Amino acid sequence: MSENSTNSRAKLLILIQKIEVNKVKGELFFLLKKDDSLEIRKGDLDAETQIKLTENFYSHTVNYLNNDELKVMGLTEADDRKDVLYKYDYEQPIQEFELINSVQTETSVQEYDIKKDKLSEIKGFIFAYVHKNIRVTLYKENYEVMMVKKNTGEKPSEKINILLTGSNQLKEFDDSIFRLNYDFDFMVIEGELFVKDLKKLESKFGFVEVVKKKAIESIHEIGVLDLVQDITKLEQGINDVSFARKVVKVASRSVVLRKCDKKDIINFIDTYDETLKKKFKFDESGQYIKLDTKVSRTVFLQLLDDSFLYSQLTSSKYLSGSKDDINKI
Q1: Are 234 and 251 in contact (CB under 8 A)?
Q2: What are the residue boundaries of the structural domains of the chain, listed by start?
Q3: Could you give the CA distance from residue 131 to residue 320 in angstroms, rounded to a whole number?
């Protein structure tokens, strides 16, 4: 799927709506973590449950994409705004998602077996709409609160599971259950990964290391500007994933890097505002910025992100986070 066809909420919605048009039934899968390996299991759904899951996962996803406030943008452009679905556009793939998306092409997936597969091994739930011309996969991370485990083992359990029946009768039940809502953390459409929960990607899938690696590459790209005395000083901040993401964002989309040269930037620092000028220290030649402090490194990234603006309407100078093109608003 091309860049033009993915970075549009409306176009994603059209792809999702093919599910209903083609009357595609969804399938439930489990992502299991067994020791150091990941495995896929297929859930054996009865017909009624399959229909309910198919309809509700579809409706929830359509409603989510119908939100007019929702933006679809590249993950390398990630900032702190809300209501964003990020397309994964890093070169380094996330191996778990290649496995998750394999349910779209694998014809023989082993079924989940409660006797062999432990409930505690379930890392996440996959709901996939599998069809010859439709590939939509939703993934949700599993948490213990979603599980009720049956009493197992030879020793008497210290707990008992009680079922509240429709007749108000209370009785013990000896089966495991899990609770699923119809939300998702990640979505794969036609092989492209879209991230709804960025924090979960960072904490559960090793994405932090991917960002750090990309940030180091981005620092070298920024260094080509020949503006900083020691560009490796930026590396001191990349253990903070938020800072690392900002480095990647600047290198991938900075208009300043694309349109301005060293002389332009130095002149801007000198003339924009005295407060900004005081944030930086230059070497004796006045041609190289020193990034010896955390503040100077942060402000330097803001500078490259063109965050220091001037309002012709109010004649005010201000710091701006979002750089959405006015023609795309």
Answers
A1: no
A2: 3-205, 208-328
A3: 45
